Structures are given as C-alpha cells and as structure tokens.
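ok, trying the design again with the full structure, not the truncated one.
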C-alpha cells in the first residue's frame, strides 16, 4: 500500500476543480444568481493564477497561487444588486474520520525502532499536510492505554510488545487530540485484529480559509466576468467565465 496516494501535494487549478464541473451544467432553475453559475479564471495578472467556482447550490470554491503561496476557500455565495458575496466556511477544525489499512508499508515504517504492532499518520490529505504533536491514545482490549505524539512526519508507531502481559492484546479504540489548535480528544473504534495502519483525517475548517468574506462585482456589460477590486484575501483582477460554461449557457 503506497500511502503517498493519500497525501498528494496540493495541486492547483484544473485538477483541483475537476470534481465540481458536472455540477455547473445543472443550473436550469430560475433562482436569483443562477445565471452567474460557472467557473471563472483570473485573466491578465502577472505571476498569479486564481479561480472562482460558483455552484448551482450556492456554494463556492476559490483557489489561487501567487508568489509561491497557495490559497483556498470554500463556503456559500449570494447576490445583492451587482455584488456577489462570498462567505467562507467558519466551522472549527475536527478529526472527521480514520481510515484503516490492513497491511504495513515498508516505507511507512521506515525509522521505527523494533517490530510495529500498528502505525498512525495524522494529516489533511486534500492539502497534502501532515501534523506534528497530535496526541494519540491507543486503548487495548485489556483496558490499558498507551500514549504517544506524532513526529514531524505526522507518524507514530505502536511497538509490538512480546511480553506475556501484551500477548494477544488488541487495540480497540484510538483517541486523538491536538492541543496546538485546542482540539479536544475524540475517540474512534478500531478493528485491532486486522488494522495495521490508521490514517487520521483532520478537517481544517476555518483554519484553511484564505478569507472570511469577500465582495465580487458583476460587470453588467460583460455578464461572463467578475471583478475583484478590494483584495482582502482574494486576488484582485478580472475573472472570466470559461468557454465551456459560456457554451453551456448558449445551448
């Protein structure tokens, strides 16, 4: 099992937005702002690239790359007059789930001291991030708990103890806490008979947002364009709706 597939670096533009494209063609309703639904790309800016997607369900996606920095945001959008207001999701970060893998990967366990009973990596795969200093409690079928913190690689290894006390004992639950961002412990059930690697997924919520709110102007003379005049976390300039979306509108 190659865990690098779970933690790909955060890529930009087309690949990032491809999963949302099918939604854009569904704007057949007459709700306010439905004519604005589409994928808009920043044009004419030097050393910067940015995209805004306005979805038919009034959610938006934003991503930008400039000066070696990647910025993203998602949330809801609304229209008042000639202004589109983007309100980014401000939900707190949380551990959303764990993924359980039934085989150890030699690359994953590289650097472990001795036999490994179970390994864990804490991260946010969609941003290609792994997290250090996540507190991990392994609860066992004998009622005991062994604790550890993730390293700079986001990993922690649970040693396979061979003493009589631990023979045949399995992990039943894993508790995750992240004091760095004031995240209290949350427990997850684990199938200790099969699981060898646990991937703990941290959803960043408001911590990943490039901005809280942003106002974008609609050009009444060019309805396929959005104009950002006040930066405020979003790259300034003119965003033009992609040709694909314009063609869909004309059909």
């Amino acid at each position: 099992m190659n865990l690098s597939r779970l933690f790909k670096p955060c890529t930009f533009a087309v690949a990032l937005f491809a999963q949302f494209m099918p939604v854009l063609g569904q704007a057949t309703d007459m709700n306010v702002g439905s004519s604005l639904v589409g994928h808009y790309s920043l044009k004419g800016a030097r050393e910067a690239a940015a995209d805004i997607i306005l979805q038919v369900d009034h959610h938006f996606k934003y991503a930008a790359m400039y000066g070696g920095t990647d910025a993203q945001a998602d949330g809801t959008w609304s229209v008042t007059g000639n202004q589109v207001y983007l309100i980014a999701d401000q939900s707190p970060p949380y551990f959303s789930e764990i993924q359980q893998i039934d085989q150890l990967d030699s690359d994953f366990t590289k650097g472990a001291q001795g036999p490994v009973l179970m390994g864990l990596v804490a991260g946010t795969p969609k941003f290609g991030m792994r997290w250090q200093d996540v507190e991990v409690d392994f609860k066992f079928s004998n009622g005991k708990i062994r604790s550890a913190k993730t390293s700079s690689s986001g990993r922690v290894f649970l040693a396979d103890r061979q003493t009589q006390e631990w023979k045949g004992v399995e992990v039943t639950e894993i508790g995750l806490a992240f004091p760095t961002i004031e995240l209290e412990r949350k427990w997850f059930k684990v199938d200790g008979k099969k699981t060898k690697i646990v991937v703990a997924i941290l959803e960043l919520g408001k911590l990943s947002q490039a901005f809280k709110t942003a106002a974008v102007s609609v050009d009444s003379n060019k309805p396929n364009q959005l104009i950002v005049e006040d930066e405020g976390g979003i790259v300034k300039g003119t965003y033009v709706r992609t040709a694909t979306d314009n063609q869909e509108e004309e059909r």
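Keeping the full-length input from now on. Residues 1-32, 247-251 have pLDDT under 50 and may be disordered.
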